[in-house]
Write a structure and sequence with these properties.
4 helices; five-stranded mixed beta sheet; Maltoporin, Chain A; 22-stranded antiparallel β-barrel; mainly beta
Length: 721
């Protein structure tokens, strides 16, 4: 292969800086003509563990060292590393993720099934993003594109899995602490190792606290958007015999965060007299049994249960009673809160068989077959001010119960020397039962299928090429509260008729065409991964709003179709023994067809516009380096293009670039580091709305933004043993 044709030009920008660092006096590692090779990275989110460089599909792996170097407390502080991944705030933490421009952005009343799933240690917490703290997480895997065979409806656009650290063969652990601006503090510890000859265990605990990044001028407080997060994580690994392993994992999170994020003036200064909350208490456990007593096949049984109690509320007017005193708007303002209490319980069972060396079909075709069942119950109580009826303590309740049963299978077929194919399919039956206090009852159900056909080719042991066609699916649902409220509160007849036609919205399907290239070059010092994709969405689920000033309802509608196309490039280069470089770049182009939103009593056509939360470019690039005498560092920059906040209005974010850094010192088991994120203090938006909420402007429609992290910095120390 002609290495001069490789896209190493991406690395040139780093050369002057990193060459100086590598040659600095006192360096503990001499510059060598043969630097260490890049370590092998394993994808664990599939049916079988696979080398990242020989895995089919576009995958990003974020390992424990990168999590620490980012000083990431939560998954949201890692997502920008992976190309074509975005998230929506609208809460104290990122609840929902978008991959390749596809994914939900919020949940208020009606139940929502996310397009991007989130799994921690075989426990599905999709839609419960606040629980995704990074305590003792050893690896985060971001799978882009539909995962119809492996994960089904939970992964229309992709899947994110998080794996915690397993018990080791020796006693090991750590104690760490962190302090930063905005009264940020963290203390945590982990301990793991053998408990008996056949049983290992690990336990990790952490408490995190921060005042948040906003000041409430009315209450004269700087902690109304605070974060108070406790996480406990545990794992038992029991191997009673050579052919049986039982892995019990569990976690508990207690999130007591404030939610006071929006300002009438679009600044980091709020005026709320009744700040909101974003609380979550979740407990979950999974048991995975692995039996390898036959050469023909192995068996895996996975069971999990999770429960979550959530309270999400906010000051609707974002102001205080009397804000218009002595002004022309006096007597025109309103004051209210909106609060959502949600209880969710979920049970999952999965049994699968994987062929062994003695059970391959025709002696060469490996296979996987499995069955899957899931039950989810979700109860909601909403406490709010009913503007239409003038009821100050109005209540709305709903009960949503959903079950699914699926069967799946996968074949891996060698075709010829260095050629192979993979065929996978999944069929899933859903049934749901919805009822609410407004008298709306619905029983949506559907039978859906997904899967993939892929072909791969290994060229010269250093280049892996694949092509695939995959199909994903996502369950439809109910717009119960929107219709019930419109009928009860005498909305205009055209609005009622519009929402009645959308009481149930249809399931969405997606076809993904993808071509990928992965290679390791220069004696395994350079790793490249490139994916090109085109996705065709049918019955695309999009969110719309009907609002007149403070009066609004949201609903989910089906557009006829949408397209998402783009490219993802990830590179990692071990320049010297002391310096490595990385660059992750994405391009994305999206569109919506045949979608209209309700504006007053008129339909407004949004066809041809880009999809929401789908920036046309993203990048993350930087360097890891060692300065010698125990000093090390990481410097990186990330950025993205502007993007629409919603499919129903045309407000956009700003494009932005953020600079992060870490400088540390390791001495034996002690690690001390200075860290900073967004060092240039960039103001950037992570959520946006468009409606009228400022009485001083007589509720004229305008854009309101929630901002991401400002400049944050501090010191962190860890003692490992």
């Amino acid at each position: 292969m002609n290495h001069s044709l490789l896209p190493t030009g991406l690395l040139v920008v780093f050369m002057p800086v990193t060459a100086t660092l590598a040659a600095s006096p006192g360096s503990e590692v001499a510059v060598s003509s043969s630097p260490p090779q890049l370590e092998e990275v394993v994808v664990t989110a599939g049916f079988r563990d696979t080398d990242l460089m020989e895995s089919i599909g576009s995958v990003s792996i974020i390992e424990a060292e990168v999590i620490r170097d980012r000083t990431a407390q939560h998954l949201e502080q890692l997502l920008s590393i992976a190309p074509n991944v975005n998230f929506a705030s609208g809460a104290s933490r990122a609840r929902f993720v978008q991959i390749r421009g596809i994914g939900e952005r919020s949940q208020f009343v009606d139940p929502v099934d996310p397009s991007v799933g989130l799994v921690i240690d075989d426990i599905d917490i999709s839609g419960l993003g606040a629980a995704a703290t990074t305590l003792d997480i050893r690896q985060v895997e971001v799978l882009r594109g539909p995962q119809g065979t492996r994960y089904g409806a939970s992964a229309l656009a992709g899947m994110i899995t998080m794996r915690s650290t397993d018990p080791g063969e020796q006693l090991e652990g750590y104690v760490d602490g962190l302090a930063g601006n905005y009264s940020t503090g963290r203390i945590g510890a982990a301990l793991g190792g053998p408990l008996t000859q056949t049983l290992g265990g690990r336990l990790a605990l952490q408490q995190f606290r921060s005042d948040g990044y906003l000041t409430n001028d009315f209450l004269q407080r700087d902690d109304t958007n605070q974060r108070d997060e406790f996480t406990a994580r545990g794992k038992l690994d029991w191997r009673p015999g050579e052919t049986l392993q039982l892995l019990l994992s569990g976690f508990y999170v207690d999130i007591d965060n404030g939610y006071d994020a929006f300002s009438l003036d679009n600044t980091r200064h709020t005026l709320s007299d009744q700040p909101g909350v974003d609380d979550q208490q979740s407990a979950a456990a999974s048991l995975k049994a692995i039996w390898t007593g036959s050469e023909a096949m192995s068996l895996e049984l996975i069971g999990s249960y999770s429960t979550a109690d959530l309270e999400y509320g906010f000051d609707e007017d974002w102001s205080y009673a009397g804000i218009c005193a002595g002004q022309p708007c006096e007597g025109f303002e309103y004051s209210s809160t909106d609060n959502y209490l949600r209880d969710r319980n979920e049970t999952r069972l999965e049994l699968r068989a994987l062929s062994g060396s003695g059970g391959d079909l025709l002696g060469v075709v490996s296979w996987v077959a499995g069955v899957y069942a899931n039950w989810r119950d979700e109860e909601l109580l909403r406490e709010f001010y009913d503007f239409d009826l003038g009821i100050a303590d109005a209540r709305f309740s709903s009960d949503y119960r959903r079950s699914s049963l699926a069967g799946y299978g996968q074949l891996e077929i060698p075709l010829a020397a260095r050629w192979a194919a993979r065929l996978g399919a999944r069929v899933e039956r859903f049934e749901a039962d919805y009822s609410d206090s407004l008298g709306v009852d619905s029983e949506p159900g559907d039978t859906l299928w997904g899967g993939e056909i892929a072909v791969d080719y290994l060229y010269r042991d250093d280049t892996f090429i694949y092509g695939l066609v995959s199909r994903g699916y996502k369950l439809g649902g109910v717009n119960g509260e929107a219709l019930g409220r419109a009928v009860k509160n005498n909305f205009p007849p055209p609005v009622v008729a519009f929402l009645d036609d959308r009481l149930e919205y249809a399931s969405e399907t997606l076809i993904n065409w993808e071509l990928g290239f992965k290679g390791r070059y220069f004696e395994d010092r350079l790793a490249l991964r490139l994916a090109l994709f085109y996705m065709d969405r049918s019955d695309m689920q999009v969110k719309g709003w009907y609002n007149e000033g403070p009066l609004f309802v949201s609903y989910i509608d089906n557009a006829a179709s949408g397209t998402n196309r783009g490219a993802e490039l990830e590179t990692h280069y071990q320049l010297t023994a002391a310096v490595s470089l990385f660059a992750n770049v994405a391009w994305l182009n999206t569109g919506i067809e045949d979608f209209s939103v309700l504006a007053g009593d008129q339909l407004l056509d949004k066809s041809g516009r880009d999809q929401a939360h789908a920036p046309s470019y993203q990048f993350n690039l930087g360097t890891d380096f060692r300065l010698g005498a125990g000093f090390y560092g990481r410097l990186e920059m990330e950025g993205r293009d502007r993007f629409y906040f919603s499919d129903s209005h045309d407000e956009q974010s700003d494009r932005y670039q953020l600079l992060h850094a870490r400088l540390g010192y390791r001495w034996h088991q002690l690690d001390i580091a200075l860290w900073g994120r967004n060092l240039t203090g960039e103001d950037y938006q992570t959520r946006g709305f468009y409606f009228g909420n400022d009485p001083r402007k007589f509720y004229v429609d305008e854009a309101y933004y929630q901002y991401g992290e400002p400049r944050v910095y501090g010191v962190e120390a860890r003692y490992s043993f």
